[in-house]
Description:
Shape: globular
Strand content: 25-35%
Number of strands: 7
CATH topology: Jelly Rolls
Radius of gyration: 18 Å
CATH class: Mainly Beta
Mean pLDDT: 87
Amino acid sequence: MPGARRIAAMALLAFSCAAGSGSGAGPRVVLESADGYRHAVRVELARDDEERARGLMYREKLDDDAGMLFLFPVAEDHGFWMKNTLIPLDMIFIGEDGRVVGVVQNAAPRSLDLRSVGAPSRYVLEVNGGWAARRSVRKGDRVRFESVPRF
């Protein structure tokens, strides 16, 4: 019987891994531009002070369709610095109404310069530097969250 239990456990593990690996299973942010284009980004979530402080520090690369979504409990003029961030990033600031309130493009890595857009935001999406310009992301574009818990 021990062999049968081991086989059953392995089958259950394989099923669990397959069930969780489907595309679209995780959180995504979809940006909808004024010209009708939609751009989806798979995101990791930064929900608390510790996760927000770490952000994308020490990462050597980021997939083109991936990013990090910072969730804040209140809308305010949030600022970011890049001290221990190794790759250039675009920061897309999103208001409570689900619209882009501003974009910081190509924030330089390893910098202590504070980056903000001078407007209240509730969410900030970080993606690879140049991502927003290549997709013409602009202030006022709509943003939709998929599988992102309400904060």
